[in-house]
Amino acid sequence: MGQNDFSDEALFGSIDKPVTKFNTQYIFKRESMIWTQEHGDHNHLFMITWLKRRLVFLDEHFARLDIHFLNKNVAPNL
């Protein structure tokens, strides 16, 4: 994996790029003629919001691990 694979830009782009493509190529519109489930902006917002919250959780989690292992002056067993 590349160094930037987990950057905010790459992660959010993995959601935004396909959604933008599907909107500009009217894929969602064509699909809505076949399927009853809509692919509205609320789904995109849900995914972006979920990712933001998950990143905050992971940042806090790993910060706590760093503090824990620094306080114990030992390296984690991975």
End-to-end Cα distance, whole Å, is: 20 Å
Q: Gyration radius, to the nearest Å?
A: 19 Å
Identify low-pLDDT runs. none
Task: Indicate how many domains the architecture comprises.
Answer: 1
- Overall 3D form: elongated
In round numbers, the mean pLDDT is 83
Number of helical segments with 4 or more residues? 3
Query: Which class best fits the helix and strand makeup?
Result: mainly alpha
State the oligomer.
single chain
The major β-sheet equals: none
> What's the order of the H and E elements?
HHH
Number of strands: 0
- Approximate helicity band: over 70%
Percent strand equals: under 5%
Quick description:
With 78 residues, this protein is mainly alpha-helical.
Topology:
Blueprint: H1 8-24, H2 27-34, H3 41-72
How would you characterize the overall build of this protein?
- Helix content is 73%, strand content 0%.
- With 78 residues, the protein is mainly alpha-helical.
- The protein has one domain.
- Helix 1 (8-24) runs antiparallel to helix 3.
Question: Keywords for this structure?
Answer:
mainly alpha
